[in-house]
């Protein structure tokens, strides 16, 4: 179904306002938060402008943690420090989780010179960045091209270079740039009835921030958050976007996770080193996701070469969730250096088979039961021929850790919402 341009804009804007987390924080007034102490001095000591191109970032899908999915608008400096501590203590850092990303609600107000200050939840951003860096981690931050962020805090409109310089002076390594209020405040205002022009305005806004970040000389990952509007996979890489959301917000329940997964089909040709489709941050360990669902969600995001940004409560993480997030074999699928995103090979009812080509000629196979259990009375049969494989295949089951022999049409019992993940080192 096609919806008209202006309707689509209005619809997405309304959807944003209805998103599960945003309304709670929209009620908060950023004005009540007191400016921090460090932003002002940071502005004076801007990072030196580099003459050479900065090193390339995000050559593999970025891995780390982001505050939004669990803490939303309540996140504080202490939560970020505690999370950084836990990333180290749980072995997540050593498994590859490097970015500790502060999402929305850190922003205070601008002073007379336009310098953005932190709010009272984040008294000293430079000190926080130093702390995160001292743990061998990197730090990310969040803003919007609009006047306000999704949670109603100060955005970067008209202050793009000033903000980019501020981030660089703090030592920020990653920016999530979230469209939000830019839709009504700029796009709809400047081009009320012209959808194509609205999209040009949006792309220009992302381009502006990409150039501002580049001008700082600091390597900063640029994450576009505009919910997959106007096929960002077609234009974001050219302006230097390292990842772009492909859909609206994820939520911690299976139906939403699965809906997002289905929307990734066909996007595989746009992913590669330095530029990734982003099906949104992980909900592993959040909400009511069962253990099978957590495993399936994590496996499929790894198959998709998705950024792996955990979003759970790390200080209270259960061992079984830690085991999922730190499964090295599964992470290795996500981080495979070829950077080729999986495709869906075939489906049999509610059971789907996805494949991903890996470096060294290896192949990953995910068997996902998106629906009800398949018992031995009517098991699912794995059709290797449909995957271009000939004869029995020696594989590793990445969740049991066992070496297995896969044969054509072998019957497989699988729980609903669970996954089997195999790596075949030498497919035949
Ligand atoms: C939007 C984004 C979320 C989160 C919130 C913060 O909804 O899609 O990921 O950043 O804004 O307000």
List the defining traits of the structure above:
alpha/beta; TIM Barrel; Immunoglobulin-like; 2 domains; eight-stranded parallel beta sheet; six-stranded antiparallel beta sheet; 15 helices; about 20% strand; disordered N terminus; binds alpha-D-galactopyranose
Task: Provide structural commentary.
- The protein is globular, with a radius of gyration of 22 Å.
- The strands form 4 sheets. It has an 8-stranded parallel β-sheet with strand order 9-8-7-6-5-2-1-10. The protein has a 6-stranded antiparallel β-sheet with strand order 11-12-13-18-15-16, with helices on one face. The chain has a two-stranded antiparallel ribbon with strand order 3-4.
- It has 428 residues and is of the alpha/beta class.
- The longest helix has 22 residues, at 195-216.
- The model is unreliable at 1-50 (pLDDT under 50).
- It has 2 domains: 5-334, TIM Barrel (Alpha-Beta Barrel); 343-424, Immunoglobulin-like (Sandwich).
- Helix 5 (77-89) runs parallel beside helix 7 (125-134), helix 9 crosses helix 10 and helix 13 (291-303) packs parallel to helix 15 (328-334).
- It has helices at 5-18, 22-26, 39-44, 68-71, 77-89, 92-95, 125-134, 160-170, 182-190, 195-216, 232-235, 254-262, 291-303, 319-325, 328-334; strands at residues 63-66, 99-101, 107-110, 116-118, 138-143, 174-178, 221-225, 243-245, 276-278, 308-310, 343-348, 351-357, 363-369, 380-382, 393-397, 403-406, 410-412, 419-424.
- 32% of the residues lie in helices and 19% in strands.
- It is built from 15 helices and 18 strands.
- The structure holds alpha-D-galactopyranose (GLA).
- Alpha-D-galactopyranose binds at residues 16, 19, 22, 68, 103-104, 149-151, 178, 225, 249.
């Amino acid at each position: 179904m096609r919806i008209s341009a202006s309707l689509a804009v209005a619809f997405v804007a309304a959807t944003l306002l209805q998103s599960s987390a945003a309304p709670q924080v929209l009620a908060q007034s950023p004005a009540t938060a007191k400016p921090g102490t460090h932003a002002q001095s940071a502005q004076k000591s801007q990072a030196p402008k580099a003459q050479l191109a900065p090193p390339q970032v995000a050559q593999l899908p970025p891995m780390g943690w982001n505050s939004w999915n669990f803490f939303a608008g309540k996140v504080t400096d202490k939560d970020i420090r505690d999370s950084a501590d836990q990333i180290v203590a749980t072995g997540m850092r050593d498994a590859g989780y490097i970015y500790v990303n502060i999402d929305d609600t850190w922003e205070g107000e601008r002073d007379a010179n336009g310098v953005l200050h932190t709010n009272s939840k984040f008294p000293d951003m430079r000190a926080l960045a130093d702390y995160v860096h001292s743990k061998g981690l990197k730090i990310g931050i969040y803003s919007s091209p609009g006047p306000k962020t999704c949670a109603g805090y100060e955005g970067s409109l008209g202050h793009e270079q000033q903000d980019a310089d501020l981030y660089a002076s703090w030592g920020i390594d990653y920016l999530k740039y979230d469209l939000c209020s830019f839709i009504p405040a700029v796009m709809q205002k400047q081009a009320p009835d012209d959808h194509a022009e609205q999209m040009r305005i949006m792309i220009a806004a992302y381009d502006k921030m990409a150039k501002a970040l580049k001008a700082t000389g600091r390597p900063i990952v640029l994450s576009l958050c505009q919910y997959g509007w106007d096929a960002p996979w077609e234009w974001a890489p050219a302006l230097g976007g390292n990842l772009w959301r492909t859909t609206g917000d994820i939520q911690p329940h299976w139906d939403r996770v699965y809906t997002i997964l289905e929307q990734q089909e066909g996007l595989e040709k746009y992913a590669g080193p330095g530029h990734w489709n982003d099906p949104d941050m992980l909900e592993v360990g959040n909400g009511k996701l069962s253990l099978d669902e957590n495993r399936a969600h994590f496996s499929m995001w790894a198959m998709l070469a998705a950024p792996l940004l955990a979003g759970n409560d790390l200080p209270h993480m259960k061992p079984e969730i830690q085991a999922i997030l730190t499964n090295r074999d599964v992470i290795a699928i996500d981080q495979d250096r070829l950077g080729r995103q999986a495709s869906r090979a075939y489906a049999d009812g509610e059971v789907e088979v996805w494949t991903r080509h890996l470096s060294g000629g290896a192949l990953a196979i995910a068997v996902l039961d998106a629906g009800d259990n398949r018992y031995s009375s009517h098991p699912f049969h794995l059709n290797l021929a449909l995957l271009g494989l000939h004869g029995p295949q020696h594989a590793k089951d990445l969740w049991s850790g066992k070496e297995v022999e896969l044969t054509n049409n072998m019957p497989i019992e699988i729980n609903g919402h669970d996954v089997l993940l195999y790596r075949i080192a030498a497919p035949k």
